[in-house]
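How it folds:
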Amino acid sequence: MPGGLTLPPLFTTAERDSFAMRSIRERHTRSLVSVIEENSLEEPYRSRLLALHREALGAAPLTDPFAREGWDPALFEPRELADWRRELAPLAGRSWYELPWYFAEAFFFLALLFAFGYYEPAGPHRLQDPFAPLKRRELVRPGGGLDTASGLAALLPGAAPLPEALHELLLASLWGNRVDLSMQHLAGAYRFSFLRHDERELLVDHTAALAERLQAARRVDFILDNSGPELACDLLLASWLLLQDPQRRVVLHAKRSPFYVSDATASDVRAALEALAGSPQAPVRQAGQGLLRQMQERRLALREHWFWNGPLFFSEMPAELRRELGASNLVLIKGDANLRRLAGDRKWPPTTRMEPLTRYFPAPLAALRTLKSELVLDLEPGQAERLDREDPEWRTNGRRGVIRLVDPVVASGGA
């Protein structure tokens, strides 16, 4: 976070009945139960997951998974281990309801992977995605990823006017974030209707300016969020960008390990591309085959990095990732948790502008975020109060969203 700013408090799980506390107590413990139900788990893995469930529900002290035996250090990068151990050290002995919120969520999924056996040197669940059954179903079910792609494929070049098509694909990439399996009540509510929206629900709308910047960009990077319908929207947007300009390059950044239930790993991206390429729907099949061909031509690249699964905010990203993103003309940052990491997950006043919060970021960026947490930025004076009166849950119920273009390099006086 840049100097000169007065930092407000972090969101924490210590606030009684706050959204942060409920996220651990209700959302994520339900996700853990679904892992037990969806996978054929033998002992001791089932008992380990049930123990984690009891700890999180019962406000027990954190258990350091790195202090136990039976995990493979080779599955972690040295700095990744150092980051986790450094962040864990001052929180030793605290309960699940005395933590910075983002850390609590990231640590929950790390602890889940340890309990599941993901990091074991050898074993039945080594490097196995505990959320894979849910993700596979989300790709092929009615209203899932393939259905979503079928509804959007007509927007690709040659089938629709260029500016209008790009605008629609940007809106799809935004609202696809409503179908997030870590918030299953939202996913269920929006599965067949996530594209429907009132224009007033887009609280910050830089769609036109973002479309113009995208059309001028030679390289566009996506920091991905969810698999399933949202990933299908992102891949169709990537396809449009690649088809519209044969000199353009798109880079997709995925999680290295399973995270937040439905967050996209590199394996999820490959599975989605193969599913699109095998679709019986000709426009979807052509889009998928085109994306696979563009990957072979190195115009579409897929990257994974441990940092996307880690406990730190984006201001603390490692140098090699800064260099990678710094080569981009525009970085699309998808989803709510990524926005929280971008802005430091603090209680900024809702009129706070993103520019001073993101001066550290190495490239121009655009945030496409459906609101599913209490962090709000870029509103006009009085707007938050009016929304409070209209809908007390507007910050977290997935109805509102933002498409926010910001150029921190220019804002900080850089080139």
